Q: What sequence folds into this?
């Protein structure tokens, strides 16, 4: 028995939906990279790029919503098709949020102070790279329907939490040493937090992908790293 | 050929076809009308008979009974003298020959008619009344216009003297036509004016009833068994083929069968409605089985399944559900089969119904005739008077057949409406 | 915690042949009481053949041979000595095309009880007729015209009449062979609502071509293909996440 729907247009609609999600994911990934560049290198060009691509991401979001409504009403999808449809809804929502967070990080870009500790920059960079890698891995696992990879991403959220904690500590340290950098430091605090939240959304995506592939929810609660003291 | 040409050709073909259809219907109707007209014109006169108004004097001296005599005594008594005396008063006759000619103007049953009138009214001794005495067959035919008057006397059945009397009676309005109740009441007779289908009617009636009582239950039960219960194998296929063939067997063969088995072997009384009924039943059996089976087959299996699913046994599902639905088709098939049996002549001739039977049969084992056989017998007679009677009998037969066929159609429609 | 209903009907190694052709291969299927089990699968896969085994309706087909076990409440019904008539009193059937008797509505319902000796007096029969029609959600619509022929009702009403007829003999199991396939959506919805109510009292097995209907109506679903039972399980599991690839291909429309 072939693996294609007997009704070809159904097959096409489903494929088109998945493609839209993948494209949206690519855009989100680029946006995340660009936002890190904006924060660390104060790259003004990146800011323009981000504003444009955010528009694209939102357009994709609407397009995917419409496609999902159409699929539901036309095809009454079952089993794997149903899980595919619902997970694309959730994933696109999470991707949109990641896009928003990236945009938020890039919008208030300020010139770097001259005496920024190497450690601080390093921690931030490491956190950013991890989150970018997570997003890359989770999108990969979506394209290849790789359960194990998705589960790994889900488990690595612990690391994200840990790196966030370390980065946050350095920022607070920097802030407490020199009060005249308050403006800049506040911005860095929010940027760090946003990266952590982006990580959470990536973990959501990983959960959706696991449910999509296996039809069962991941057991147990998410692995949590150190909690930041408020 | 272009599209227009093709269309035109098709239209003209359809028109031609419609024309042929209408033409055939027209031709068929024409034949029917000719036949009906022929029969009706010849037969309608049989329902009236000619009678002559005669004054009858119940002379005490000629009658040997008194007032208050019993019916038996009256029937025994001799009314001959009174009859002759009354008849001779109708016209002056010169000699014995003329007297005989005068008497011949009346039916041979004149005495019986006078006696019957006396019986109906017991206080007639010494009184005179006017009676309408039935005329003889010759006068009857003459009055109905069937005898040509312009032949020489020796080639006529009515003498000149009789003609004079006749014309006189006509002038004096003493000769009339009244309803011919003899046609229905009497059995066969040598005298055409007295002949009736009474015997044949009762004979046919008994035969058909016996045929129905024998054929219907056997045929219906056999059909139900063959259609619903019998296993489908070569034997039942063989039976089915043979039943279909039996329906096509010429009816005279059944007559031969009856002759050999019923009359020669079992020695049942010949020429009786009993034997006729049995013979007709044998013949009608396949003609009922075939429509009955077709009706049973026509009942949709969903009805049977519905009954079985509710917990009916096979027997219950057949008799409570299938048979009632098959009944309209079966009934109309039966009625048509009976109508065919009513018109059967050949087998009945073979079992001896060609005998000359005067009495009306009172039981199915009294000898009798049947309507179609009576037609056959009368058509062989020489007298002119029988011609109209033959045609009238055919009219009676046809009316029965038409009524039975209409009944079949009506029943079928009534039951089918309930089903759908 | 979910309550597990008891097993009402159990089939084991059930094989059915139409002459030389085998229609069912070693079917092992348990049907729970007071629950709706749906049987799905492509045409000719054996689902109708299977349910007809449960009330021995396959007996009327000469060339049909049934081997294996079917038990109802632990009693084997594939036994030659079993009284089929009393079996069909306990196991009722509703067919794809509504087939009311060409009699009055009253007579349609009272026929079953009468032949099983379940209503001797007229008032007893009246009560049975009223109850059956009420349970089939048809009473209000026909209570003033019980003398009219059953065939004069609309398609949906006729089917509810057939359901009432099946209920009238007080069965334990109701078998439904594509009961809604000849009906419009409104009539279908009414019957699905009815099935929801009926499952509180009767064990119901429904064969259906509509997967959406199977999901809506049943708690347990069995998927048949070419005479074999491919997968059986809780309805939600079968339609959200079936174990067998053939099942998934069928319910998602990958017919090959």
A:
């Amino acid at each position: 028995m072939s693996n294609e729907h007997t009704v070809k247009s159904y097959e096409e609609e489903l494929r088109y939906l998945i493609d839209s999600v993948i494209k949206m994911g690519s855009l989100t990934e680029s946006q995340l990279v660009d936002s890190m560049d904006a924060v660390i290198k104060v790259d003004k060009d990146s800011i323009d790029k981000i504003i444009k691509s955010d528009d694209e991401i939102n357009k994709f979001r609407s397009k995917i919503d419409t496609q999902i409504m159409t699929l539901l009403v036309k095809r009454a999808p079952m089993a794997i098709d149903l899980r595919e449809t619902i997970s694309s809804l959730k994933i696109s929502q999470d991707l949109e949020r990641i896009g928003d967070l990236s945009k938020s990080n890039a919008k208030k870009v300020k010139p770097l102070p001259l005496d920024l500790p190497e450690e601080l920059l390093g921690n931030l960079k490491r956190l950013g790279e991890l989150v970018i890698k997570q997003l890359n891995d989770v999108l990969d696992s979506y394209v290849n329907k790789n359960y194990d990879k998705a589960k790994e991403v889900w488990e690595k959220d612990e690391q994200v939490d840990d790196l966030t904690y370390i980065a946050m500590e350095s920022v607070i340290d920097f802030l407490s040493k020199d009060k005249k950098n308050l403006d800049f430091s506040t911005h860095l605090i929010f940027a760090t937090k946003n990266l952590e939240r982006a990580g959470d959304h990536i973990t959501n995506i990983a959960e959706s992908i696991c449910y999509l592939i296996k039809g069962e929810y991941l057991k147990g609660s998410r692995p949590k790293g150190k909690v930041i003291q408020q | 050929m272009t599209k227009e040409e093709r269309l035109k050709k098709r239209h003209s073909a359809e028109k031609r076809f419609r024309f042929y259809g209408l033409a055939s219907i027209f031709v068929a109707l024409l034949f029917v009308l000719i036949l009906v007209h022929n029969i009706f014109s010849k037969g309608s006169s049989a329902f009236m008979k000619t009678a002559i108004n005669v004054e009858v004097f119940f002379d005490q001296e000629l009658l040997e009974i008194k007032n208050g005599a019993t019916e038996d005594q009256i029937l025994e008594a001799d009314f001959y003298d009174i009859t002759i005396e009354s008849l001779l008063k109708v016209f002056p006759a010169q000699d014995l020959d003329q007297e005989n000619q005068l008497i011949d103007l009346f039916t041979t049953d004149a005495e019986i008619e006078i006696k019957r009138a006396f019986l109906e009214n017991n206080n007639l001794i010494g009184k005179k009344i006017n009676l309408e005495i039935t005329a003889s067959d010759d006068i009857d035919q003459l009055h109905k216009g069937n005898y040509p008057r312009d032949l020489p006397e020796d080639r006529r059945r009515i003498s000149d003297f009789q003609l004079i009397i006749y014309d006189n009676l006509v002038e004096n309005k003493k000769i009339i036509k009244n309803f011919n109740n003899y046609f229905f009441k009497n059995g066969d007779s040598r005298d055409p004016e007295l002949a009736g289908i009474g015997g044949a009617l009762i004979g046919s009636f008994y035969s058909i009833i016996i045929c129905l009582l024998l054929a219907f239950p056997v045929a219906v039960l056999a059909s139900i068994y063959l259609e619903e219960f019998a296993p489908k194998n070569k034997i039942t296929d063989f039976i089915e083929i043979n039943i279909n063939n039996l329906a096509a067997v010429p009816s005279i063969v059944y007559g031969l069968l009856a002759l050999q088995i019923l009359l020669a072997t079992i020695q049942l009384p010949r020429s009786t409605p009993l034997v006729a009924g049995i013979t007709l039943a044998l013949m009608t059996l396949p003609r009922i089985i075939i429509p009955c089976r077709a009706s049973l087959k026509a009942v949709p299996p969903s009805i049977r399944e519905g009954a079985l699913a509710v917990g009916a046994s096979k027997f219950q599902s057949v008799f409570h559900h299938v048979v009632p639905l098959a009944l309209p088709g079966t009934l109309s098939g039966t009625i048509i089969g009976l109508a065919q049996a009513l018109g059967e002549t050949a087998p009945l001739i073979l079992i001896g119904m060609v005998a000359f039977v005067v009495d009306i049969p009172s039981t199915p084992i009294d000898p009798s005739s049947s309507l179609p056989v009576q037609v056959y017998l009368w058509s062989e007679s020489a007298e002119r008077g029988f011609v109209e009677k033959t045609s009238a009998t055919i009219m009676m037969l046809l009316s029965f057949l038409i009524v039975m066929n209409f009944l079949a159609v009506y029943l079928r429609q009534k039951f089918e409406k309930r089903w759908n | 915690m979910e309550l597990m209903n008891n097993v009402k009907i159990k089939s084991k190694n059930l094989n059915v042949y139409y002459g030389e052709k085998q229609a069912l291969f070693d079917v092992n299927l348990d049907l729970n009481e007071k629950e709706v089990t749906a049987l799905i699968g492509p045409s000719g896969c054996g689902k109708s053949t299977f349910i007809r085994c449960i009330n021995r309706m396959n007996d009327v087909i000469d060339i049909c041979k049934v081997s294996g076990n079917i038990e109802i409440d632990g009693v084997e019904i594939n036994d030659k000595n079993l009284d089929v008539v009393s079996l069909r009193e306990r196991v009722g059937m509703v067919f794809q095309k509504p087939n009311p008797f060409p009699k009055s509505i009253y007579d349609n319902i009272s026929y079953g009880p009468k032949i099983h000796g379940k209503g001797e007096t007229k008032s007893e029969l009246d009560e049975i007729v009223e109850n059956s029609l009420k349970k089939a959600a048809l009473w209000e619509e026909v209570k003033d015209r019980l003398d009219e022929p059953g065939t004069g009702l609309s398609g949906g009403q006729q089917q509810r009449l057939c359901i009432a007829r099946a209920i009238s003999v007080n069965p334990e199991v109701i078998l439904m062979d594509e009961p809604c396939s000849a009906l419009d959506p409104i009539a279908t919805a009414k019957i699905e609502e009815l099935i929801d109510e009926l499952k509180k009292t009767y064990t119901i097995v429904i064969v259906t071509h509509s997967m959406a209907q199977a999901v809506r109506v049943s708690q347990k679903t069995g998927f048949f293909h070419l005479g074999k039972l491919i997968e059986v399980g809780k309805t939600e599991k079968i339609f959200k996440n079936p174990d067998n690839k053939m099942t998934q291909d069928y319910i998602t429309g990958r017919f090959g």
In short: Residues 90 and 189 of chain C are 26 Å apart (CA to CA).
